[in-house]
Each structure stands twice: as structure tokens, then as C-alpha cells.
Automatic annotation (TrEMBL):
InterPro entries linked: AAA+_ATPase (IPR003593), ATPase_AAA-3 (IPR011703), CbbQ/NirQ/NorQ/GpvN (IPR050764), ChlI/MoxR_AAA_lid (IPR041628), P-loop_NTPase (IPR027417)
GO molecular function: ATP binding; ATP hydrolysis activity
SUPFAM superfamilies reported in the protein's UniProt record: P-loop containing nucleoside triphosphate hydrolases
Protein origin, superkingdom: Bacteria
Ranges of Low complexity composition bias in the record: 8-20
The AAA+ ATPase domain, residue ranges: 52-191
Protein's organism: Deinococcus aquiradiocola
Region (Disordered): 1-20
Transmembrane segments: none
Protein name: Magnesium chelatase
Length: 340
């Protein structure tokens, strides 16, 4: 563990970008777009997940920019970044750290998890024992080794990737592990125009090499505090509970979303509202967040899977069937304003 991992803000001061008057969202999205062309939508959802204090699962084919998205967000936010390639022979201590005997006593040597953003690349290629080593870190912000608890630096974000196509040599993530991820996102292939623009940018050098921070860890922590203050009308809380309840009641679902799913949906909607400069949540925030928050938490019956039904299809049907609250209290003027 290096000093730069614990105090990246000292290395990357907040808002050094010339357009410092731009909002937090504008600075980060603009910065990431120099690396990942045409992916503002998924970048915005990923940023909302980080603002909500969660961890992100990126599920997509190889070469779509999963690693670049994680790295660009880490650099833009001034956070330390470590990448771990998950393989079948990876041990839990390779991720969390290990105690070694030195000078007559045991000394803890921190693993790569002691950073701001940990990229768990191809997480489904590691054994369940190693996958479970992340559970405590993701849920509690700490790791335990030899009976001693070690607190992780804050902010701390796990961005895990997996390839949904390859199954040979992989270990399916258990429901308890999937439930720890606030969002599951897909980067997707770029359009032809965006891909051509990307080729032009990469002709000389990769922009990730010159990317600079436009915020710092304290900016992120302050933004997270503001997210928790975004108002959610009682009608919308009932709407959230109704959405998750309907996933449990759906005939094609064996295991639906639980209370953690409802909390996650509310948190991401609050973050999306704040990124829009509002201090209140709207139904549109919930509809935008629901597929990324709920789909990976659903386990379908075998018959449904064999007929080609996807969890995303169930979420789309639930959103269509459940009426949106007719009247939601909306302030005349947002008091919070955009993120500075």
C-alpha cells in the first residue's frame, strides 16, 4: 500500500481542470468521455452508483471498455486505483493482505484492496472462497485477518467485471455476492460514428495516459452526504416498495428483490436527482435506476430461463404494470442546486 493510495487527493488536487466552474457531474462526465466515447448514459449511472456509496458490476463482452470506465472514473475522482485479475488460483490473501512474521512479531501487509477503486477483473473466474473475501470489504468497509480488523480507506469502491458469454472455467457469483453490488451495468458496443471517433483519438496515444483528476476524495464524500439529504416523497417510497414486492410475486421469478434492493433503488434515484441539480426524487429517476438495480438480484425459474426470459424483461414488465403515483410533491424551486 502506497501513500498515494491512501491520500490520492494530495497527488490530484480537486478541480484542476480549466472549466472549474462546471458542475461536479459535468466535470466528471466530460473527463470520462475523453476516454470512453459515446457512453455518457452508462457513465452517469456508474457515477450515481459511486455517489450512492455502492459497488458496481460491469457485465459485457471483452473489449467494450469496462476496464477503461473504471479507471477513468477513478482518475477523474482523484482516487487510488488497483486492478486484480481474478483467476482460479487466486487466494483471498492475494486480495485482502496477509500477516508476515517480521522482527519477532506479525506485521500485516495490506493487499491491493486497500485503495480507492478496486477493479476485480473477471471476478467469476475466481473460486467462491476468494469471491467471498470481498463480501466483508464491500459490506462493512473492512477486512479481517488473523482475528484483527483493518479498516479500508474511504471512499472505497469495488468495480467488478465479468463476461456473460464464457462459462468454461468460471464460478457463478452467488446471490449473496450479487446482492452486494448496487448496480449491474453493460457498457455496450459503440456506434459506428463513436468508434470512428475513438480510432482518431487513439491514433497517437491513449487519452487515459494524460487524464487528470477533476475532483478529489473529499468532494466525493461531501457529495455522498448530500445524496442522503435528497427528499423522497412518501408516495414514491410506496412505489419503490411496490416494485420490489412485484418482483417477488412475479410467476417467473424464484427469488425476487428484498429490502436491500429497495434501499439500493432509493439511493441510486437520490444520486441521479442530485446529479440533475434537484433535491427531490422523481418517478423518472426510479424508472431509470430500476433495471440496473433490480435485474441482477432476480433469480428466475428454470422454465422461464429455458424460454428465453431475462431478469431485465421481468423488471420492464413490473415497471409497465405498476402505476406511477399520480401526484408527487415537487418543490417549486430546488433548494440543493447542482453539485459544485
Amino acid at each position: 500500500m502506497t501513500q498515494s493510495d491512501l491520500t490520492p487527493h494530495a497527488q490530484h488536487p480537486a478541480s484542476p481542470h480549466p472549466s472549474a466552474r462546471a458542475t461536479f457531474q459535468e466535470r466528471v462526465l466530460r473527463n470520462v468521455s475523453t476516454v470512453l466515447v459515446g457512453k455518457e448514459g452508462v457513465t452517469r449511472l456508474a457515477l450515481a452508483g459511486i455517489l450512492a456509496g455502492g459497488h458496481i458490476l460491469l457485465e459485457d463482452a471483452p473489449g467494450t471498455g469496462k476496464t477503461m470506465l473504471a479507471r477513468a472514473l477513478a482518475v477523474s475522482l482523484g482516487l487510488g486505483f488497483k486492478r486484480v485479475q481474478f483467476t482460479p488460483d487466486l487466494l483471498p490473501s492475494d486480495v485482502t493482505g496477509v500477516s508476515v512474521y517480521q522482527d519477532g512479531r506479525f506485521v500485516f501487509v495490506p493487499g491491493p484492496i486497500f485503495t480507492g477503486v478496486l477493479l476485480a477483473d473477471e471476478i467469476n473466474r475466481a473460486t467462491p472462497k476468494t469471491q467471498s473475501a470481498l463480501l466483508e470489504a464491500m459490506g462493512e468497509g473492512q477486512v479481517s485477518e488473523s482475528g484483527v480488523t483493518h479498516t479500508l480507506p474511504q471512499p472505497f469502491v469495488v468495480v467488478a467485471t465479468q463476461n456473460p458469454i464464457e462459462f468454461e472455467g468460471t464460478y457463478r457469483l452467488p446471490e449473496a455476492q450479487l446482492d452486494r453490488f448496487l448496480l449491474r451495468l453493460s457498457v455496450g458496443y459503440p456506434s459506428q460514428d463513436d468508434e470512428a471517433q475513438m480510432l482518431a483519438r487513439l491514433q497517437e496515444r491513449h487519452p487515459i495516459g494524460t487524464l487528470q483528476a477533476v475532483a478529489g476524495p473529499q468532494d466525493l464524500l461531501q457529495a455522498r452526504a448530500r445524496v442522503r439529504g435528497v427528499r423522497v416523497a412518501p408516495e414514491l417510497r410506496s412505489y419503490i416498495a411496490g416494485l420490489t414486492a412485484r418482483t417477488r410475486q412475479h410467476p417467473q421469478v424464484a427469488l425476487g428483490g428484498g429490502p436491500r434492493a429497495s434501499l439500493a433503488l432509493q439511493a441510486v434515484a437520490q444520486a441521479l436527482a442530485l446529479l440533475d441539480g434537484r433535491d427531490f426524487v422523481t418517478p423518472d429517476d426510479l424508472k431509470l435506476a430500476a433495471p440496473a438495480v433490480l435485474a441482477h438480484r432476480l433469480s428466475l425459474h428454470t422454465e422461464a430461463r429455458l424460454t428465453g426470459v431475462r431478469p431485465e424483461d421481468v423488471v420492464a414488465q413490473v415497471l409497465m404494470d405498476l402505476p406511477v403515483p399520480v401526484e408527487s410533491p415537487v418543490p417549486a424551486a430546488p433548494a440543493g442546486g447542482p453539485l459544485p
